[in-house]
User: What shape does this take?
Amino acid sequence: MSTLTKTEDTPAATAPEAFLSVRDLRVRFSTEDGIVKAVDGLSFDVERGKTLGIVGESGSGKSVTNLTVLGLHNRKTTDIQGEIILDGQELNSAPEREMEKLRGNKAAMIFQDPLTALSPYYTVGRQLSEPFMKHRGASKKEARDRAIEMLTKVGIPQPQTRFDDYPHQFSGGMRQRAMIAMALMCDPELLIADEPTTALDVTVQAQILDLLKDLQQEFGSAIIFITHDLGVIANMADDLLVMYAGRAVERGTVREVLQTPSHPYTWGLLSSMPRLTGDIDEELVPIPGSPPSLLNPPSGCPFNPRCAYSGHVADSLCTTERPPLAPGRAAACHLTAGQKQTIFVNEIKPRLG
Amino acid sequence: MSNNVTLPEQQGPEAGTAATREPLLAVENMKMHFPIYGGFPIKRKVGAVRAVDGVDFQVFPGESLGLVGESGCGKSTTGRMVTRLLEPTAGKITYSGRDITHAKRRELAPIRSEIQMIFQDPYSSLNPRQTVGTIIKSPMEINGINPPGGREKKVRELLELVGLNPEHYNRFPHEFSGGQRQRIGVARALALEPKLIVADEPVSALDVSIQAQVVNLLQKVQDELGIAFLFIAHDLAIVRHFSHRVAVMYLGKIVEVADRESLYTRPRHPYTHALLSAVPEVDLDTEHKERIRLAGDVPSPISPPSGCRFRTRCWKAQDKCATDEPPLVQISGNKEGHLTACHFPEAPSIEARVEDVVMDPALAALEKDHTEG
Assistant: This one.
């Protein structure tokens, strides 16, 4: 069922099948301190109507990747290499005018903080109408009707009067609903949700997540869902990509990655999270150390300074050679499949309860 | 007032060990109303934000009380009143038998060293112009404490205790990562050997992998030094992991308080049910868990709903809920110390219901379409 497996086996032949396909993406920023390798050789695919979850800590390159997909980086200061193919169209080399036609139309984004992503100067209605008028050539009246329809759909009470309100008159949950309505104005085929519920309370988060899921069923959009919360991902995504230091370290379906994780970083993430149903006396097992600087990432596997299992690998391969991420269900780690299996069953699984 | 029911004395972390102990901190009907001024040309008080509107709870020595709730429910304000950074509008705070509700600066001085605080944001709570040594040392200087072996030695010990290198004594906060900074904050809170620490969202600004480091550190501190904690957080899983007893707040009131086990497995208040069911879980086979989706956001604390404050979002609300405010009492069948403020409590179970509770109109409409189409 996963495209990941299908396309990666023979990337050249079947690549068009995936709706969005990112190949060997590298994003670098020049700063005063040196070159930041924010994304370093990342490949993934998203199928129509499916949700790809991307998890990782802050600074792992999840947001940068998705801003790149929509061409939102300043091209003068950012060095972007690799291919981004959306529905057969190469985006990395596309001129700005092409990207403008695409943004808010075929591909839309839901940002983390709706208060900073919405302009305080314009009414919510005007901000909703703008992309519809621009992309569809609709009149003001048509755009208004469409906006009210979308506001109703996402559950804003009294949309006719709320249309003329400013963002500050909305509560946090309502602003996020308005952002979702805005992203859905032109029936996008790709929706990028960058931590859409991180700023919200847990009961509101549950409403928004269910709303997104139901809307996806109705609109059939592909969604890239970025978050640091594995619980949210478990609820939302079909496929999962775990990122660390600008690279994908593990990939597979959500079920595969969460139930039989096979990268030490994923093990670490899962065992450092307290659960509502876990054993209370079981101590949390944090990942030692802190994420590496992307100015000067560690040689070899970027996780090796924090990894408890690098001793199991012969010839200190972990510090010298970067482990590749095989196609399909895979983890970028030098441990052999047998070693991973033993460690997971004996040490990790008991911790997860 | 009906909510003046205080907690029974004999409940503690483990009822056996804590029985008959005096509470370290007792809060009765504590209120904080922030005035709103308006009008021209003379500004007058036109209303009040009723951030905390009558809460009662107790913290026993060595116990950890968790305080959970959504943003704006008054949990941080409660923490600030307990440390007396704010003076309550009404009510009473008793710390080891002494009333500190309206204590003056001078009267508070000896108590301040016993109640310490750990702040949420490790970036803004450390002075960037002071070295780590100075930061941790200053509480001792202010309180004129001279530990044996000198203050510097004590600071180095504290650094070691919280898992930092004592040689980092002369470094500045910017040289540390978020998790390490939070450790500095913990070391500072421990410098005066407090009896009570108010931890206001101590890990919510940290990355997932770092959160566990700090939670473990706090747990170690609590176990080894026997410090009581008022642990304020919005993350139910972390509160469960850390607290012996848990109080749930909604719009300035405590709606339910119980020992950890009861609150997480046999909650009675509908809001507690809604909160627990909203937590996204990694476990993929959660079919057995109930599903409750509330509508809208928390109402404004400027004009909270009459009667039960949760009634505007509650699926069980009836006329009585609008007129009578439910008292925080022990409902029959609940364990000692499990108090709930509800007229129509839910069944004590978090198992899936026959029908999901979906209050959100948009969600309900979409789901109806899907099941029909």
Observations:
- Chain B touches chain A through 49 residues (CB under 8 Å).
- DSSP finds twelve helices and 14 strands in chain B.
- The CA atoms of residues 278 and 292 of chain B lie 7 Å apart.
- Confidence is low (pLDDT under 50) at residues 1-19 of chain B.
